[in-house]
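Narrative of accomplishments. A recurring question from our advisory board has been how the design workflow behaves on a single, concrete structure rather than in aggregate. To address it, we present the structure tokens for one chain from the evaluation set, followed by the sequence designed for it. No filtering or post-editing was applied between the two.
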């Protein structure tokens, strides 16, 4: 008989991912631990983090493209880049595109260098996604932020949406702070409020972002 995992328990020893039963347990925990979060879960339904495909290079490339841009502007530039290197983006295809073509697609010179540098690191093995998958959260963030163009926020988004880690709280995300203050009051401190969401803060973040969709 399969042993049921308690909703608030994360096993030690290896990184845990949000798939199947674990994601439903996260929703149950949020329903019970926080009235505001419970309303969001009922309004927005099941969290979709676990359904994302594992495309690590594509995820980091699109994250770099999106930095400091609106969603619309980022989507437009990504579509232009895709005319040269089809989506989902792959390292070899990106390396085959001249930096001048990336800049012509709308990327800054710095972003073009970052994306080429990322592709080169993946190709030569100095950035190894299977190894990063095995690292615990802070070690994975440290490995990712060694890559030019990848800061802590980008690494945290990668851990949430690509590695599907259950308990990431992105304190540098302005949208999350905005959602917390709209839902919990202007004086709310996200780090304090988030204690009730542990060990599923990633899932809580997903619901906070969804709360802004219709704001």
């Amino acid at each position: 008989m399969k042993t049921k995992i308690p909703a608030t328990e994360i096993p030690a020893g290896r990184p845990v991912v949000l798939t199947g039963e674990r994601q439903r347990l996260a929703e149950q925990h949020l329903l019970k631990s926080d009235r505001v979060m419970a309303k969001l879960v009922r309004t927005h339904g099941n969290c979709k983090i676990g359904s994302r495909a594992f495309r690590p290079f594509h995820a980091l490339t699109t994250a770099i493209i999106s930095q400091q841009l609106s969603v619309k502007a980022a989507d437009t530039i990504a579509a232009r880049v895709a005319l040269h290197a089809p989506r989902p983006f792959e390292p070899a295809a990106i390396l085959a595109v001249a930096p001048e073509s990336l800049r012509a697609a709308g990327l800054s010179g710095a972003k073009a260098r970052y994306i080429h540098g990322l592709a080169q690191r993946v190709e030569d093995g100095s950035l190894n996604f299977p190894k990063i998958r095995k690292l615990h959260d802070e070690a994975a963030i440290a490995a990712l932020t060694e890559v030019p163009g990848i800061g802590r926020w980008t690494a945290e988004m990668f851990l949430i949406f690509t590695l599907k880690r259950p308990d990431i709280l992105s304190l540098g995300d302005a949208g999350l702070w905005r959602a917390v203050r709209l839902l919990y009051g202007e004086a709310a401190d996200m780090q304090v409020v988030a204690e009730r969401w542990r060990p599923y803060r990633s899932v809580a973040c997903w619901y906070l972002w969804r709360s802004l969709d219709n704001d």
